[in-house]
Amino acid sequence: MSDFTTIDAGGQPIAVRKDLRVPMRDGVHLAADVYHKPDEIPRPALIALSPYGKELQAFSLKMPGQYRPSVLWDGCIEAGDIARVVSEDYVHVIGDIRGSGHSEGEHIGNYNAGGVSLGEDAYDFIQWVAEQPWCDGNVGMIGTSYFGSMSVLAAAENPPALKAIFVNGGHYDFYETTYHGGVMWLMPRAAREGRGGDSGWAFTDRVKSRMLEEFSAEEIKQKVAERLQDPDVANWPNMFHTLLYPKHHEAWFDIVMNDLDGEWYEERNPITLAENITIPTYLQIAQGRGWTMDGTIELFNTVQGPKKLDILPYPPMNSRPFVDAHDEMFRWYDQWLKGNDNGVLDEPVLNVHVEGSHEQVTGTQFPPKEVEYRPLYLRPRHVLSERPEALGVEWAAPESFTQLPMTLTNDTAMISWSTAPFTEPTEMMGTGAAHIFAALDVDDTNFILRLWDVAPNGRRQLITTGYLKASQNELDEELSSEGNPVHPHTRKQPVTPGEINEYIIRIYPFANSFQPGHKLVAELSNNEPMSDEHNSLLPPDAFHLPVGRKTTTTVYRDAQHRSRLVLPYTVK
């Protein structure tokens, strides 16, 4: 007699094994649900692990994939299309990580579950699945975003049964997931707490702060007081509440308290660990949120085994439930888990969708074409020009914008600069830099730079972004190069009000061909709009912590202060 029940999924019978107990090496048991065809034949297994709750993932059986701005889009339904996995003759295993959902144990911090690395738990989980009678011993991973990050953490532990991974839309460098250029991004709060289109982590009272575990009450009180010296944090109600009542939002408390990069983030940095990965790795990332492209490319360069990378078209958010990218995923796993020679190994290692021209460019590394960095200078009258300004500051006077705090306005103050319409297709591909000479009237602020492709009819699409906390302008001189600035973000150097400084902003990777009649428009601000053509495609909480006080930014772009963009033009 079988030990599963059978459900009907749109006319397809699916066997379900509920609440299996998966033992970890320290005696803790994780919970898992298993889906496969209703027989006893062993098959390759695809494993999905997260803190979002295995029950929530079953929504893929009754809800079609939703795309932003659907009100039903839930950023936490990410484990993949259960019915499709089963129909492709795989076993779909969905588990709750330690301390979440129906699993045992505690979850401390973010990638540290009860003092046990999530990769270590993933190793034990994978090996247990491989030994079950319904699995043929070959295992892969499935899921987007957090699930993708779990795939990398698992592969870095080298469990023998894990034969390959396919990762779509993962987040890797944990500091860069939560602080872009030092500017706090609020989306991880939504994923943890459940807000703005996310159900959140399936935790009860078993999630604990590493900060509260490691420091005394008096030390925490002092550290909180220091963090509240940042007016952006102190003047934002959610941040204030988190710091004063940390046990309500312990995982988010840890992130708010650690606003600089270093050991706390580096301990379980998937990119650092990825040098241990030797199994076949297929990575995908959509354009439009530059930091995820940056981390994906870095991960691609780090893994050691056979690998592929797809840089996909805009928009940046895929469906929830996650049903995208399954065609490529099954071809990859059919090759490596089933041994089917389907030609995937003969295809290009790197595929890049070029926005604007909508061409596919292939190669072995990003950027796949030779590029040369050229400047576009910020000029008076909001002009971007290949020629620098010839007049001094007394004639090419600086211009200012003043951002009022959100307590007073929802408006975003900004300055923009535009090229003339391009007369021929102009392709750019790679990272870039913005060198902005500016003076502030306060000791710190956000620099938010957004580059747009604007069509003759005024329709525009975001191409890439750049972020920088003014106090974290320090460069890593060893790693930085023309058009590729790297900031360590390990310390703050408060700005002297009124002093003109050169701020160098990293422009995240992109690939775009500006067509004849189109313009490149650069917008510089301290905050970002709550909603526009781009942000309406993101979840409601996917914005950056606004400045908490009135801030005036004065931008200089004259013969002595050559503010400019440095962009990667492809060589014809």
Automatic annotation (TrEMBL):
Residue segments, region Disordered: 474-495
Top-level taxon in the UniProt lineage: Bacteria
Coiled-coil boundaries: none
Keywords of this entry: Hydrolase
Ranges where the Xaa-Pro dipeptidyl-peptidase C-terminal domain occurs: 330-566
Signal peptide: none
One Pfam family it belongs to: PepX_C
Transmembrane segments: none
NCBIfam families found in the cross-reference section: CocE_NonD
Protein name stated in the entry: X-Pro dipeptidyl-peptidase domain-containing protein
Species in which this protein is naturally found: Corynebacterium halotolerans YIM 70093 = DSM 44683
